[in-house]
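During the first year of the project, the team set up a workflow for recording each protein of interest as an amino acid sequence followed immediately by a discrete structure-token representation. This format lets reviewers and collaborators read both layers of information side by side without switching files. As required by the reporting guidelines, we include two representative entries from the current panel. The first entry is reproduced here exactly as it appears in our internal archive.
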Amino acid sequence: MKIGATFGQLIIEPPTPDHPFAMWMSDVERILEAVRRAEFAFLAFSHYYQGELGYRMQPLVVMSRLAPLTGNLRLPTEILQLPVFNAMDLAYNLATVDHITEGRLDVGIGIGYNPYEIGPAGVSRQDRVPKFEEAVEVMRKFWTGEPVYHQGRFFQVEVTQLQLLPVQRPHPPLWGAAYSHGAAARAGRMLEGLIGGPFQSFEDLGTQVDTFREQWNRVHGGEPDRVGAWRTIIPGTDPKNALDTIIARRQLTFSRNIQGDMQEKTTAQMRLDLTQGDQADWAILGNYQDCLAGLRRCRDEFSLTHVSCNFWNLPEDIAGRCEYLEGFGEEVIGRL
């Protein structure tokens, strides 16, 4: 099982006038060095406009800037909100980033949910799935390098050709985000991988993994080799200390998820309240040994091939974060 980290939770803050980009990059270089020493397999970049994580910078731009500093790490997007993009332009941008990263790009995609994010792109909740599916079809056509003819509901293309082909052939792997059985089945039917969402229980994640595998086997045959999930990691001396600390810091407030009506009728039950007392059902809390046990469960009980660690409650200073990550590499990743 390959272990990665989400980039946004590893940095202290985004660039600001008082903490300009050059200073920010110095901090990031130290973090990336620790991530490499810890032997994480990948570093994931998220795509947000709104809410508590909306200050993150545009993922494809940041990935391109950091690619030379990331060694052999694979660089996935987790998660691009596909319906907000023009499929032709995104295919072009992803082919470009695949070259910049020397073929280390993975493309995690989802349908989005926050009306303040999908609305300005002219996308309704009802349009998300059909536009998502059509966009995947159009991007794959462009990545062939042949002239594209496409007359669909959302995209009309006449003889346009994308001559810059991705390094990875036929294209970078496409992973589908899932909080529901419909999304898991869609990923198994038309994509190359699955990424389960962070705020759902292990039980719900397991049933969606089963749905993905069943659909994959029906369409492709054999076993999929890209079955992943986000898991929230909350460090502490023990699970109770981890929870008490993050509540006191008010770091994980779920404001973006609640504001955007993330909970839908068809999705798994979202765990969006730290006071519920069910954190062990969806998060991994505590010290290195607790984290090791939680990740072993991901591997042994659910047969995940990839886990994206979404760290919260890290030390507030860069040196402390680097020390924690290197310890995580030695005590957790090295013992899986």
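The second entry, processed by the same pipeline in the following quarter, appears below.
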Amino acid sequence: MIEVRGLTKHYDEIHAVDGIDLAIRKGEIFGLLGPNGAGKTTTISMLCTLTLPTSGAATVNGFDIRREPSRVRQSIGIVFQEQTLDTTLTARENLELHARLYAVPKPLRAPRIKELFGLMDLQGREDDVVKKYSGGMRRRLEIARGLMHRPAVLFLDEPTVGLDPQSRVKTWEYIRKTARDAGCTVVLTTHYMEEAELMCDRIAIIDHGKIISRGTPDQLKQGMGGGVVRVKGSRATAETLADLRFVREVSELDGWAVITVDDLAHNLPALFQRLENVKEVEVRSSTLNDVFIKLTGREIREETGGEGWMDAAMRESRG
């Protein structure tokens, strides 16, 4: 559904995207993760034809992003991080307006609007003015609007940012339902590791303009080992634990020794026999956030508040 070959974007001396390759299959939910400034926003902006690449090539739904931008735009739906609904219109009017802009045939509009209100669990609120909607309802309406013209690919920029935990979980359910029932490929960026882990079939991690790792969430976590032990007070280092073959890696983070261990349940007693003067300890299975820290050197939550796709596109249009 999406094929990227050597895609590059330079701003003077800055290599925002530096020759990346991607292949995203039809019907999958694909996550693009990275710190702010890593290149994910620029990558998505190029795939959406909001930004022209410096070099390289990409196709979306079989259409070239350089030669056929209008066909690409007809093939995609976008839900920006920033809200773009008209809050003075009703929910139905928002979808009707979008249908007209995308030339959805008039006989198809009403049944499709009804279908989308059902898909997003917004029945009975179709004729409410959007300013009366909660944050979670607005986000679901944004997703419904992005699906109005039956896109082959739906791009989601931080789909649950700013939502309460209950609304986030519901939105995850609707996105999974969208990929399954609408037969739509979903590409999303997110700062929530649990969101990427639960939602995505595959993930690519980008940093400094390059794809540094990719795979399913389980594949990425397996590369970390079986689990993570964090201890405070012990002088655990790679050198002091070098003879323990089940220890994958030892690092330091905020005063804690972070020890990655194979077969955590089996090897934990042997590890604690070696550690001395332990004041605090945390033990858990490896997470996607552990993978992210290992590959980029920082937590993704430290990187929140970055520029959204719409901001990036407007900045580029202003030169």
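For the second entry, the following points were noted during internal review. The longest helix spans residues 165-181. The domain at 225-285 is CATH 3.30.70.920 (Alpha-Beta Plaits). Both points are flagged for discussion at the upcoming steering committee meeting.
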